[in-house]
Write a structure and sequence with these properties.
The protein is mainly α and 413 residues long. The chain is built from 20 helices and 4 strands. It has a two-stranded antiparallel sheet. Helix 9 packs across helix 10 and helix 18 crosses helix 19. The chain is globular and about 65 Å long.
Length: 413
């Protein structure tokens, strides 16, 4: 079978089977000899790939801008480091690498060789082994977050109202409106490009009516989390980059859910936004140790969850899920986040698989919370569970890049 992305189709190629739009509409019948007008039609209907008659049509190498040999070498070395953990052994990973290559080389051509960082050699780092451990427990760490509960009094009141069978959107709105800062932030988010409502929503009560109490509650968790952890030391992790990565993961998760035509895809953004809350908790409690652990994971090309399990006995995903449970976040979000690194163990394999793939994409497309952290390993079974072609990534990442830049300020500005 020869599948080609639509942008690789040429005049004269012959369609091997009926081409259907994502909506199920027949776009081109079998045997159609392609013309330019057919390619334009395919793009307009959202078709991303077509099966073509004849022998294999190899994908051409990515078209790169002109640059010096030194710049090309620097870019290639950087890309090799980024993909050192996940590899390029499957069609989806090769497509991610192709898109990453185009992006990285374009960045170097525009901003120069310093646009990509140098990769530190392992001997340049302090001597901390990933096997070094700390005597910690999830319950101990979550229990120390008592300060958060007084900070999120408004959120707890929202949860109490939602639990009442007599509650209404007016009751939820009354609680939210007591916190003027939270109200302003939520209205800004609701009116952002993330939701894209045709007319402005001017009140919290209207926002609750349009979104529903559950979604507004989870949005409040996201805003609370960002505010609470905003004071972490920039010496350990760049918090702007961290939240940029979280927003990117949320956008990718929502778009992937959209590709699956799920009835509700908005909560996927929130799962991406909150997925690494456990990492922030560890960074806040043990900044020096975690800083060295992050450096070691990057330079040794090891998975961070593996290093965490060796050091603590658990990964930050499990810690984050326990913290979110204390925050009384809806259970479906907790399970999705808990198993983002092992999605097939989740109660909802599809939702955790979507978050897992979105997590990988957020790093592969240049939104990592560290510029030198390798792209996480991709669970091929999780990708297969999505039942998507790797050819969707080209248009999906282009859409994600636009959305990320449009909504970033609404959530962390």
């Amino acid at each position: 079978m020869t599948l080609l992305r639509v942008d690789k189709l040429k005049e004269g190629m012959v369609v091997k089977g009926d081409v259907m739009a994502p909506s199920g509409r027949l776009v081109l019948p079998v045997g159609t000899k392609l013309e330019d007008k057919h390619v334009r039609l395919l793009k307009s209907w959202g078709v991303v790939e077509v099966e073509i008659e004849g022998g294999p049509h190899p994908e051409s190498l990515p078209k790169l801008p002109p640059m010096t040999r030194e710049a090309m070498t620097k870019g290639a070395g950087y890309l090799d480091h980024l993909y050192s953990l996940c590899g390029r052994g499957s069609p989806v990973l090769r497509e991610m690498f192709r898109i990453s290559t185009v992006r990285t080389m374009a960045l170097i051509a525009e901003k120069g060789i310093l646009a990509v960082p140098d990769i530190p050699h392992i001997n340049d780092l302090d001597d901390v082994s990933c096997s070094e451990s700390l005597d910690l427990s999830i319950s101990q760490l979550v229990g120390k977050q008592t300060k958060l509960f007084s900070f999120s009094e408004t959120y707890r009141q929202i949860v109490e109202v939602l639990r009442s069978p007599r509650s209404s959107s007016a009751h939820v709105a009354q609680v939210v409106e007591k916190d003027t800062s939270l109200s302003a932030k939520l209205l800004r988010i609701v009116n952002s490009a993330y939701y894209g409502f045709p007319s402005k929503i001017g009140s919290i009560q209207r926002a609750v009516t349009v979104l529903g109490g559950r979604e507004l509650t989870t949005l409040a968790v996201g805003v609370t989390a960002i505010r609470y952890f905003s004071g972490l030391s920039q010496n350990v992790i760049d918090m702007d980059r961290f939240w940029r990565n979280s927003v990117a993961c949320g956008v990718f998760a929502r778009l992937l859910a959209g590709e699956k035509h799920l009835l509700s895809d908005s909560h996927f953004f929130l799962s991406g936004l909150l997925r690494d809350i456990g990492l922030l908790l560890l960074l806040g409690e043990y900044p020096d140790f975690m800083g060295k652990l992050l450096d070691r994971a990057s330079s040794r090309k090891m998975s961070l969850p593996v290093c965490e399990r060796e050091a603590f006995g658990f990964s930050h995903s499990f810690l984050g899920a326990a913290l979110l449970s204390e925050w009384q976040v809806p259970p479906y979000l907790i399970s999705t986040i808990k198993y983002k690194d092992n999605p097939l163990a989740s109660d909802d394999v599809l939702e955790s698989s979507i978050l897992h793939v979105a997590d990988v994409l957020s790093f592969a497309m240049g939104y990592g919370w560290s510029p030198i952290i390798p792209v996480p390993s991709l669970d091929q079974d999780a990708w297969d569970h999505l039942d998507l072609s790797h050819n969707v990534l080209d248009t999906l990442t282009a859409r994600a890049n636009r959305q990320i830049s449009e909504i970033l300020g609404s959530f962390i500005g």
